[in-house]
Structures are given as C-alpha cells and as structure tokens.
User: What shape does this take?
Amino acid sequence: MPEADREAASSLNIDPNTFASHLPVISIDTRGQEIPGRYLTDENDGMSHDENGVLLTSLAADGRETIPVSFELFASDEDDPAAVRLSDDPQVDAQAEMRIRGHSSRYFSKPSYQLKFTQEDRVTSEDHDLLGMGDGSSWALHGPFLDKTLLRNYVAMSVFGEIMPYTPEVRLIELFVNDTYQGVYVLMETVRRGDDRVDIKKSDPNSITTSFIVKRDWLSRDSGTFRDFLNEIRETSQPLDIVYPSEDNLTEAQRNWIEREFFQFEKSLYSYDYDTSDYGYWNYIDIDSFVDYFLINELTLNADSGELSTYFYRDLGGKLAVGPLWDYNNAFNNYMADDYSNYNGFIMMRSPLFFMLLKDERFVERTIDRYKELRKGALSDETLISTIDSAAAYLEPARNRNYLVWGYSFDPELVTANEKLSPDERNPKNYDEALAQLKETLLERTAWLDVNIEHLRQYCHESAVKRYNH
Assistant: This one.
C-alpha cells in the first residue's frame, strides 16, 4: 500500500467524504426509512409478547419486518492494495432487505443486521459473492458491542473453521449507514443450504425424505417450529426450527418426516438400550461432529451451546451432524451474568443431549483422544493466542475509529444493564484490558482442561449410569 494511503487509512477520520480504511467498507442507504427490528415495550416499559410468547419487534412503515436498502461494498484489489474509500467504484452494488437481528444483542446501542439480497420485487433472492466468501443471498452484519475486543466471533470462526465443516466464513469490515460511521462489523455468512454454505443435496418437494437443516433457538415469528422428544419430556423449552427446506418449499409430509427422524435419534439416546448395536444412538448421528462441537464449546465456555444458536444438518442418505457453529459473542467469559466466568468445570453437562452422550464410555474416550489431538494443532495455546494477536494488530486503525463512536461503552455507568457484564467489575476499562481478559480466559481454560479432560470418565462410570439411564 502506498505510504500516503497507509497514513490515510491509519487516521481517526470518519468523515464519509474523506474516509479511508485498510479494511473493506460497506455503505448502506436506507432511503429515509428507519431500520425495523428493535424490541417493543408495553405501557409499563416491559417487553411486549404475542400470544405464543414471542418477543415483538418494530416493523417497517408498510408492516413488513424488513426495509429495502441500497448496498455498496468497497474493497481494495488484493494484487494492488490501496486505501479503501467511499469514492471508489463499488465491488458490489445491489438492493437488499434489511432488519435488526439477534436476541440479547437487540438491546445494544450498536445493532447487528440481517441482509438478504433481492431483485426489485423485494421477493426474488439474488446471490452475490462478498469478499471471496462464495455466492449467497443471505448475510449477517455482526456489530460487536458487549465484546470489547471486537474479535470473539471473528477469531472463533477463523480457528474453529479448521475443525468443523461449513463454519461460516467471516470478514472484518467498517460500516456506514446513511453516510454515518457505525464502526467495525463482522460480515458473516449465514447458515443456509448451498454450494458455498452447507453443501447438502437439494430438497425434492415430490419426495417425503429430504436433506434438512434445523436450529434450536428462541421461538421466533418466522420459524417453522416443531416440538421434539426433548420438548415432550421437558428436558428443554427451546423448540426446533426448520431452516431448510424453507417454509415456502417445505411440504407437510417432509415436516412430519424431519420431526420423526429427529425424534427417533433423541428417543434412542434416552432409551435403556441406547448403547446396544441395534438401537444405539450412533446409528443416527455423525459422532465426530458431536465430539468436536462438545470440545469447542467447552473450551470457549459458550453459554448458548446446545440450547441456543445451535444448528443440526443431515444430508439425504447420511447421518445427523451438529453444526455449523454460530455466535460466540457471549463466549470466552463474556456472558452478561457471571454464571460462566469460572474457568473450572464442564459446562456442556447442562445440555440434555450431551448429558446423555457422556454416559457412553465410547463417546467419552473418543472425546478425550480428540482433545489431546487438537491441543497439538488447531487448539494449541500458540495457535489460539497468535490468531488473537495477529487479528488485533491487523484491526488496530479501524478499532481506534470504532471507539471514537462507541468508546463510552467502556464505562459501565454509561450503558444500560442489558449492555454490560455483571457485576460491573468484570467490564474491561479499555481495549488493552479487554484483549488481555480474552487471552487470559483462553489460557486459564485450556490449562484446566489439560489437567481435567480425563475426568470426563466420571460421567460414564457404572456408578453414574443406571439400567434405565436415569
């Protein structure tokens, strides 16, 4: 990059007319509309719900959940790097439907967004390849706010993508909305079926059987929800949503088949003969995916894992796999409450599926062996810390600009209770402290797991496993 460009991209200037960055830049014009998706409150300032208990969010003026926006993506040529400016020719110039996304993050002053590229009819989807991540119509703009390092999701997807297939690709960018600087965002693939996403066979509406993707998460208005075995026996209150096939393309016969298939796996896991050759749970699932998912979420102390933001997929003719991974904003000791700030203990035991899987000695031994293998490579301290350090160094000029706008958030007295960690002492006072906190969490956690991973055997010991598995 020329020296003049390097200097411009390192400045604190956030004026859209003269702005320059070493990162890709996205500019969105909402055409004078307010972006919908904020939580609604009732007359007592409490949260508003519909008859099914779903939290209500603001709608667009026309009653839709999204608004049409103009989207432009600017990026430097890899072969001829230069500062990125809003006066450049955009790499992508398109129309998209936009709304605020997330659950707890909808409370944050810095929102995250959902984007879907469409044609002018606002219905027909249109694929675009953003920054080399492959074609897709659906994308997320994650706005780190509670995560003061700005890096948790970026680092998680970058590192764990080497372990688990179909992990969403991510890129650090800077965002302008209506020519107003919004700070550093993480552009993310969303979990969808596709050649460049979850590469499973296309669904045939004339067939009862189908490839599928399901998600366990908070109940939402646009979900194709079904109650699974864990709901029936009240081991969880979180429903499953069918992500693929889409609601428009899913037949009732396919919905019933997906429900039966998932129900059968969970029922087998809770049956007294769950570890027999004829009825064993391993007849239904890709065990390696569950092992890797378990280890990644134990390592990261991810509060949502197994119960929220948890995906499963199954290719037609294959076995059920857990994944792709999603949402590590609350991980690495960044959960609002201090429930997961202790580096000791196995947190995945609270997940009904993993509570049962750990009763099987074969699953436990496979998990212990896999942990030791990963600690020599993808999950070594050196790999984890060097990834964080290199990302932080790369981000530096942009995160300095980010905190021109959001720097007040380091003071717990200047943000709401829904925008900070509890108690207040857990909140870092500056960026360096936030980065040190993240690295300390990782090193303390890996040190504990190194010593205690073999203690997983306590959960499959015959004294803990009764005939009827209760």
In short: The chain has a mean pLDDT of 92. The longest strand covers residues 92-101. Residues 381-406 form the longest helix (26 residues). The CA atoms of residues 12 and 400 lie 7 Å apart.
